[in-house]
Amino acid sequence: MAGQEGPGGFAERLGAEVAGADDGGARIEFTVTEEHLNPAGTLHGGVLATLVDTAMGQAVRSTTDEGEVPATSQLTVTYLRPGRPGRLVVTARVRTRGEHLTVCEAEVEQDGRALAHALATFALLHH
Questions:
Q1: What sequence ranges are listed for the domain Thioesterase (predicted)?
Q2: Other C-beta atoms lying within 10 Å of the C-beta of residue 114
Q3: Which one of 9, 48, 82, 95 is most buried, counting C-beta atoms within 10 A?
Q4: DSSP 3-state assignment of 14?
Q5: Annotated domain spans of the chain
Q6: In sequence order, which residues have a C-beta less than 8 Å from that of residue 58 and are 6 or more positions away?
Q7: Nearest 5 degrees, angle CA 74-CA 78-CA 12?
Q8: Could you tell me the pTM of the whole model?
Q9: pLDDT higher than threshold 70 for residue 4
Q10: Are 76 and 8 in contact (CB under 8 A)?
Q11: Would you give the DSSP letter of residue 3?
């Protein structure tokens, strides 16, 4: 699983690393630095939202056919505790795949503790 290509775009610019994406699952690793913090000194919620969205998009992409592109149509993030500088891991899994919509779930862990939980619905666009 290690050595996958980067997530591309904004998530890659943030420093997200795809550790693996296969068979409806994905794992992203990320190192929180000072530049990712909000004025309160904790991990900015928008960074976490980007990471879970990216991980779930990678999970969906691992199940799509050529010409199908997942697009987030709904995203809910529950922030369970503040994130701090250091390494974190996002694990995503496709839960239900329909003809046009796919539901995913993601967990974020830092120091072995839950940081956030996310649920998203992706539409499959056809190119």
A1: 41-115
A2: 12
A3: 48
A4: helix
A5: 9-126
A6: 7, 18, 21, 26, 28, 92
A7: 65
A8: 0.91
A9: no
A10: no
A11: T
